[in-house]
Amino acid sequence: MPRLCSTKIVATLGPATADPAVLRKLYEAGADIFRLNFSHGSHDDHRARHAALRALEREVDHAIGILMDLQGPKLRVGTFAGGPTRIETGKRFRLDLDKTPGSATRANLPHPEIFAALEDGADLLVDDGKLRLRVLAHGPDFADCEVVTGGTISDRKGVNVPGVVLPISPLTEKDRRDLAFGLELGVDWVALSFVQRPEDIAEARRLVQGRAGVLAKLEKPSAIERVEEIIDLCDAVMVARGDLGVEMPPETVPSTQKRIVRLSRRAGKPVIVATQMLDSMVGSPTPTRAEASDVATAVYDGADAVMLSAETASGSYPVEAVTIMEKIIESVEHDPLYRPIMDAVQAEPEHTAADAITAAARQVAHTVGAKAIVTYTTSGSTTLRAARERPDVPILCLTERVETARRLTLAWGVHPVVTADVRSFEEMVEKACRIAREQGIAAAGERVVITAGVPFGTPGATNVLRLAWVEG
């Protein structure tokens, strides 16, 4: 049976969800995509989870998407001689390349690329923004700072440099090793961390070579400044609100989230809203009302997916977190206000035959009360066009490529099924109606709208629309 909800759920795996029995419960509760976080765990851990997911996929006889999330460059201070150290507001503090353990007046920052990009007056944020330093003077191996916001600093805390484009690749040597490993395993999506500019996506695409979809994590203000170019180059987007909320004023994050979701929808690229969505459920069986509202907002905005991180990776209630997220999504999608909101931000179709056919399919399905839009696709582009339209019926995607089916588990409203391609109009109609009935999407006597490309099997050539009755 297809999901009851159109908005998908991404669940991060970790120690709390290593058991294959728990994976099955997460899937049954509503998880569609599973995230392997390469900031944690060994290759053996990720290999075991990947194998367990593929085994689950065979058991449930439905495509399951797997997303690998690369760590990216982690900028951190060094160690401190006396352990956690207090630095006082208004005092001076130096960062340098000296590896000597730090004190209340200086610390090692083993990243010469930061010093090379700094300007006087720039701010440095330490430990997720809990401490703020302002650069007074700098050189190739140091930065003399004023402590704007003091506090306790300890070993290897992270450093953010808002407003500065750093001359570093988002792919470290570790990331390159992890990427090669993940592609060999057969992951469906690669999430690229620390994206600063469109060139970062181009670099990742050269390495991936089409073997997986490339997803850009938007967590840097510099990326937001060029967001349309980045969306154009990638296959999907994640609004990574954790680091984004550190480097941008928190009051600007909600509007930035809405802008990214709208731009992604307009481009027909799947978009995930992530970070701390149900964070209290790491240790509590129920979320706060504010968290429930946060998830609902992402669904009202039209996000393709919402993501759980620590809630399912290391929390005490992973299955409950997926269950309540699914309930929130279902409640929003059944709200009478939901459909007018979706329609109010509908993207204009491009001036192509494929977009014209897809837009017409949405309208025809609504007008005649069809039960589904059925798309035949090889690359996934036909189905993504249908998802961009945000129709008020499910999208049944028929593809002969299991890789395409797995990637499309991320797309809004899509129920992918792997089946051999068709070779005639008669077979196109018969197979679409039969599979819609078998999958529980349409019953005998109900109608479906079918889109495909002729010649059959030609990627991106959507040029046929057919309205058909499902027979018993």
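Second entry:
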Amino acid sequence: MKRSYIKFLIFSICILIVLLLNSFILNILGNYYYMDIFLLILLILFKFIFGIEKDGHRYKKDIIINMTIILFIAFILYYIMGIFIGFYKPTNYLNIYGITTFIIPFVVMIILKEYLRYQMLNKTDKSKILTVSVCVLFILIDLLVSIRNNSFDSNYNIFMFIALVLLPVISRNICCTFIAKKVGYKPNIFWRLIVELYVVFLPIVPDSGLYINSLIEFLFPFVLLYNVYSFYKKREKNVPISYIKKRVFIEIPTLAMIVFILAYFVSGYFRFYAIAIASGSMLPNIRVGDVVIVDQHKDYKDLKVGDVIAFRHDGLIMSHRIYDIVVVKGDYYFYTKGDANEEKDNYVTHPENIIGKVNVKVPYMGLPTVWLNKLFG
């Protein structure tokens, strides 16, 4: 291994030790100002030990233009979704207190972070191990800001941290690492400032909730990554930039639509709702890990024996087949049974607990959700 690589690894390990000490002893780097100071010290040390290189990438302007198109399309789709799910007024940070305690230190943090990431990646050359180590370090740095606001006293809270914080942080840093390696630090600063600060400057924001936000935050960086990857693949084949820009108007809206369709189905706000099956009570027709699409606007009076319905029972969402329907003085009582069960369910399902009728299943698409629930449930 080259001497410079060894020196780089030692530098990275020292940063890791400081991060671990902060997590278990000091716990001060969750504050934006302290994080800014920490990053500035790292940058100064890095310049002293390794030196600083200028950003000489050719296509950063073209990538930023492509990102602008992607962000424009994404915000249009996001706010169209808001028409159906509603809007809310975010916390007002546009005052002296908000600007000095949140906006300025946050902007400085992103700039320092992406500039340091770029400089560190420049020293990795083509080493995949060093590149991955840089990505992991910045994942840990991002987590330090979020970890102080999360509790880990139960499996449920751990699961929520993984779903709402960890996975979006990982996808964001994978994207930023790839872009910094290919294009430089400026495109990362551009898209991160817009995506992470738009809520501060816009008067209303779609009320999408934590789950759908985390899904978008997890998937959207991969849309950007795909765009940069496609750009460079085409440039390697000497495809004209004008042609690449035209393709952006086709490929990126398609990817953005996929992201928002996924968000549509898992949010539960709209007519169709996607549910991952976690038990084998409906075997062989519906297996563990299948995702069922539920029509939530089905009138319960139109339901009949043999229909598969999704309903709430004891805080859980169940999907069983209607075994019998009893009507007493105009009130409907639904008796259900799992296809794999010998006996019908020992409870009655009332109309207000019915989510809707199961129309479609997608095999095995829900396995990751099932595995995480079993691990942390």
